[in-house]
Amino acid sequence: xxxxxxxxxxxxxxxxxxxxxxxxxxxxxxxxxxxxxxxxxxxxxxxxxxxxxxxxxxxxxxxxxxxxxxxxxxxxxxxxxxxxxxxxxxxxxxxxxxxxxxxxxxxxxxxxxxxxxxxxxxxxxxxxxxxxxxxxxxxxxxxxxxxxxxxxxxxxxxxxxxxxxxxxxxxxxxxxxxxxxxxxxxxxxxxxxxxxxxxxxxxxxxxxxxxxxxxxxxxxxxxxxxxxxxxxxxxxxxxxxxxxxxxxxxxxxxxxxxxxxxxxxxxxxxxxxxxxxxxxxxxxxxxxxxxxxxxxxxxxxxxxxxxxxxxxxxxxxxxxxxxxxxxxxxxxxxxxxxxxxxxxxxxxxxxxxxxxxxxxxxxxxxxxxxxxxxxxxxxxxxxxxxxxxxxxxxxxxxxxxxxxxxxxxxxxxxxxxxxxxxxxxxxxxxxxxxxxxxxxxxxxxxxxxxxxxxxxxxxxxxxxxxxxxxxxxxxxxxxxxxxx
Length: 484
Hints:
This protein is mainly alpha-helical. It has helices at about 1-30, 35-60, 65-90, 95-115, 125-135, 165-180, 185-190, 200-220, 225-245, 245-265, 270-280, 285, 295-305, 330-360, 365-390, 410-430, 440-484; strands at about 145-150, 150-155, 160, 195, 195-200. The longest helix is centred in the last third of the chain and has 46 residues, at about 440-484.
C-alpha cells in the first residue's frame, strides 16, 4: 500500500515540477525574473493541490489517481500561457485566473469531503432541472444580463461577469442521468417502428424532450449555439448509453444536420463562421466585418510558425491573435510548444476522458454509469469542437478549452466536473465486500419468504386436489356397491 501511495504522489509531484519549470522558463525569457506575487500564488496553489490529494486518500481512497495530475498540468499550462500573453498585452488576467483556481480547488475539496455517495444527487433530479433552467435563463434578466461578443450568455455585477451556462451542463447532466435511469426500461422497449428503427413512446421521453427543447430555445435566443451544440451532444450520448439503441445516434445525427443548415440560414453569425471555415484565405472573407476570418487565419499562422517543436516559451508572438488567452489559447500554445506540445495536451485530455469511460464501464450502479458517461462525453465533445474549430476541421463554435482558457466560471465548473468523476471512480474501484450487504441479505430473505409462501400454496393446492380425487373415488365405490 505504501509503494502504491508513493507512486500516486509521485505523479502529482512530477506534474508540479513540470509546471514550475514552465513558469520559470517563461518568466525568465519575458520579464527577466520570477515575479514575487506569482511565486506566492503558485506556492499556495501547490499546497492546495497537495491538500486535495490528501483528502482524496482519506475520503475517496479508491478514486482514480490519474485525473488530478492531468488536470493540474492542463491548468498550469493554460495559466502559464495566459501570463505570457499578459506580458505582451500589459494585462493581469493570469493572476485573477490563479485566484479562481484557488476557489475551484476549495470547492472541489468540499465536494470530495461531503459527497461521500454520489447517488444522493439522484434524489434531486427535478430540483437540478429547475436550477439548470434558471441558470440558463438568468442572462435574459434585464439589468444583470450582459451581451459580450454578440452572445447574451453572461450575468454581471459591477465589473465582474459570470457565465452561468458552464454550471447548467452539470445540473442538466444530473437531471438527465436520474430521469433516464428511472425510465430506462420504458425507453428501451420503444414504441412504433419507423424505417427499421424502434422509436420510444412520446410519454416516456416527454419530460426530457421538453427540457432539451427549452434549453435549445433559450440558447438560440442568446445566440450561444456552441453551448447548444454541447447540450445536444450530451443529450444524445446519454440516451444511447441508457437504451443501447443505435437509432438514437442516427436520429441525433439527422437532427444535428438539419439544425446546422437551419442555423446557417437563420443566423448571420453562423453563416459567417461557415464561410470563414470554407474560405478562410479568401480576401473578401478575410476582410469582412463582422464575421471575417482574420482571427482564424492569424491563429493558423501562429500554429504553423511553431512547427514541430515550437518557438519556445516566451519567444513567440501569441498576442497577435485576438482572444488568444481564451477562445484561441490552443493556437497560442501551438506557436510556442509546437505540434509536439499540442499532441501532449491532447494526450492529457485523453487520459482524463479514458479514466471517465473506464469508470462508467466498471461501476455497477446505473445512475453512476449514466452520470459519468454524460460528463465525459460533454468534456470530450467540448475539446473536439474547440480544437476542431481552430484547426479547420469544423466551423468555430465559440466554446473554450476546459481548464486552460481564461475565465473563472469555466474553470470552477470543470473542476467540479473532475471532482464528480473522482467521486464516482471511488465507488467504481471499491473492492467487493467479503460479506453480503444488509440490502442484499434483506432482499434475499424477502425472495426466500416469497418462494416459501408460493411452495406452501402449491402444496396446499396439491393436497386439496388429492382430497377431491379421494372423495370422487369414494363416491364411485359407494355407487357401485348400491348397484350391486
